[in-house]
Description:
Blueprint: H1 13-16, H2 24-50, E1 55-57, H3 64-76, E2 79-80, H4 92-97, E3 99-100, H5 106-128, H6 135-147, H7 150-170, H8 178-189, H9 201-228, H10 235-245, E4 258-267, E5 270-279, H11 281-316, H12 319-331, H13 340-365, H14 368-399, H15 405-415
Antiparallel strand pairs: 1-5, 2-3, 4-5
Helix pairs in contact: 2-5, 2-11, 5-9, 6-7, 6-13, 7-14, 9-11, 12-13, 12-14, 13-14
Amino acid sequence: MVLIGPWSDLPRVKKWTQGRSDDWADRMNHIYTVFILLCMAVLVTTAQFVGSRIQCWTPAEFTEGYEDYVHHYCWIKNTYFVPAMDPVSPNVQAHQEAEIAYYQWVPMFILIQVFLFKFPNVLWEIFHSRSGLRLGQIIKYADWAHYNSQDDRKELIQNLSSTLDKWLATQRQYQHTVFNRILARFSRIVCLICNKREGNCLTALYMCTKVLYLLNIIGQFFLLDAFLYSDYSNIGFEWIKMMRLGQIMRESPRFPRITLCDFKIRILQNVKDYTLQCVLPINLFNEKLFLILWFWLVIMAFICFYSICKWIYLIVVKRNNYQYVKKYLKITEQLGPHDKVLCKSFADDYLRDDGCFVLRMIGMNTSDLVTADLLDCLFVHYRMKTQSKETNNSTETISAPYVDDAEDSSLVEKEQ
C-alpha cells in the first residue's frame, strides 16, 4: 500500500522488516514479545511512580510526616500477607516467611525477560555471519530486486547468484580423512551438529537457535515461580476454572491487595512496635499483567514447538530440498523432461542443506518471484558447469593417444 499526502513520511512496517534473517516464529519471540514486555515495563513503572504505590492505615496520633515515613518505609521494606480470617502470629520469623518481596522489582524483572527473549537472536546474528555469508544483507538485496526495474533487478539477481555460487564453492570438503567421514555421517543424521564442509552449518546453527527460543519460554515459567514465590505455572488454569464455573475472581495469595507491615519507632529511649494494614493498588495491576503474560507464554510455546517440528521435517527429509527446487524451476519453465537427475543433483550435491535454507529464507522474507528468478539463474549456471565438465572429460578421452604394448616396446628398443 502506497501512502500519500502527510502520511508519506511515516515509516512503514516493511522498512522495519527488511534484511531479516529468520522466520515469523522467531520474530514473534525477539520482536513482538520484546515489544509487549517493554510496554508492560513502562506501564508498571508509570503506575509505581505516578499513582499511589502503597497506602497504610495509620493511627490517629500520627502526623502527616509520620504518615509519609510509614508509606515509604513499608514500600521499601517488604510487607507480608495474612488472610483476613486468620489471626496474626506474634512470631517475627513467620512474618518474614510470608513476606512479599517482588512488587518493587517488577519493572527490573520484565527488563530481564526482555534480554532473555532477545538473547537467542543476538547469538544467531553473531555466529551465522561466521559461515562466510551475511544472510541479512543477502535478503536485503533480494528485497531490493523485487522493487527495482527489470534491468536493475536482473543485475541484482545475477550478483546474488554469483555470490551464492562462490559461497557454496567454499563450503566443499577438501580433506577426506576418517574423522571427517564420521562427522559427515553424524551431521546427516543429527540436524543440530554444525558441519561447514557438509553444507549444514547454517541449518544446524538455526535449529540450535530455535531450540534456545523454546527453552527460554519453558525457563520463563520456572523463573516466574521463583520471582513470585508461588506456583505461577497454574495461574492460567485456575483462572480458566473460575471462569468456567462462573465464580467471581477472588483475591489471589500471589498478588495480595491488603498486606501487613511491621515497623518500630524510637522515641527517646523507648522503642514502640507497630503493625499496620496496608493496601497495594499496584498488585491489582500486577495480577492482570502476569495473567496476560501467562497466556502469551503458552501461545509462544506452541508456536515455537510447531516451528521446530516444521523445520526438522524440512531438514531431515532430504527429498524436501528436491521438491522445493523442482517447484520453482517448473515455474520458470527451466526444468525439462530429462532434467530430473540434474535437478536432484543440483539440490542434493550443489545447494545441499545450507543452500536450500538460504533460498527458503529469501522466499520467506521477500517474495516467491525473486526466489524463482534466483534459482533459475543458479540452475542455469550449474547446468553450464556440468556440461562443460562433461565436455572436458570426453575431450580428454578422445585426445589421449592409444599405444599398443608391442609397439611401445619396439619404440623403446629403437631409442636404446
